[in-house]
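Reading is simple: the token line describes the chain's fold. The lines below illustrate.

. . .
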Amino acid sequence: MSEVITILRRFVVFEGIDGSGTTTQLARLSRRLESAGAAWSSSSEPTNGPVGRLIRQALSGAFMARPETVARLFAADRGEHLYGEAGIVERVGRGELVVSDRYVFSSLAYQGLTCGADLPASLNAPFPLPELLLFFELDPEVSAARMSSRSSLEIYENLAFQRRVAAAYADVIDSYKGSGMTVVRLDAAAGPDAVEEDVWAAVSPLLSRPRM
């Protein structure tokens, strides 16, 4: 990345294809942060706000939306997630460690495939990067096996598309080399306990850093 990029300190993001275990690991990390007495909060995208709920309806197939519309909705939801009342920026500003399950990188991978790279790139360019990105790497075949037990699937949750997303994610993550953001790649095929330890090893050093 050649342009100047803002890094948001004490902001951590989990990313990975569907079924990679980010939701499970966020719950586990939350328990450890609570036990450690840390000032922290967690969230996910799409959010539970009005725009996020609309996105979830589109992803469930409840209504049809053009890929470009979905990309714009994600960016709008992200703006509220960051800058809205009690949003990420406010929380890190008061010293919390904030962890989000998905962020900009999901849009660049998923919407980059569905509507082309240019629109998601332009919509997300103004947003700051996290201090730490944890990328949960998983073979799409394993992802599909994990998702087969779900009672319902979203429109992107199929093996063919997840194969494409996995490749797109790799390109997106590589594009941020030299950005100043720390990227830790995790083996999401390992057992949940092993992944939890890897997550904690990456995140816990941030707790001892001075608040900025």
About this structure: Residues 67-83 form the longest helix (17 residues). The beta strands are 7-16, 40-44, 97-101, 129-137, 182-187.
